[in-house]
Design a protein that fits this description.
Elements: E1 3-4, E2 7-10, E3 15-20, E4 35-41, E5 50-51, E6 53-56, E7 64-69, H1 71-75, E8 80-91, E9 97-110
Parallel strand pairs: 1-9, 2-9
Antiparallel strand pairs: 3-7, 4-5, 4-8, 6-7, 8-9
Length: about 120
């Protein structure tokens, strides 16, 4: 089950959101051989989306990943509400592709006055 969190970002600003992932027992999630993906859309049914650049920090055993948007990317966003989610994917020991949603919620893009 994904954690729910609302986020506010400023239009035209660089964004870095650091995620600390843990297992159910509270231990740090080992992100070795994991891929982190994150997208935001105006609505769940919207076809257009903005993809975050994702970086898994080293060492991967610390369970830290950062979601990034450049000031140019956020400047191109219309102010208002969006929905987003973050998924991790990996292959299990039987080489099955596993996808797990770890975070979801709403993003509010606050308009910029200065360009």
């Amino acid at each position: 089950m994904a954690t729910y969190e609302d986020i506010e970002i400023d239009q035209g600003a660089d964004i870095a959101i650091e995620l600390h992932m843990v297992n159910l027992d509270g231990s740090k999630k080992d992100l070795s051989n994991h891929t982190v993906s994150a997208r935001m859309r105006k609505s769940y049914s919207a076809t257009n989306y903005t993809a975050f650049t994702t970086v898994v920090s080293s060492p991967t055993t610390e369970g830290i990943s950062t979601l990034l948007l450049t000031n140019t990317e956020t400047d191109n966003l219309d102010p208002g509400r969006y929905v987003y989610d973050v998924e991790i994917s990996y292959q299990d020991s039987d080489e099955n592709d596993i996808i797990e949603r770890v975070l979801e919620g709403r993003i509010t893009v606050k308009p910029s006055v200065t360009y």
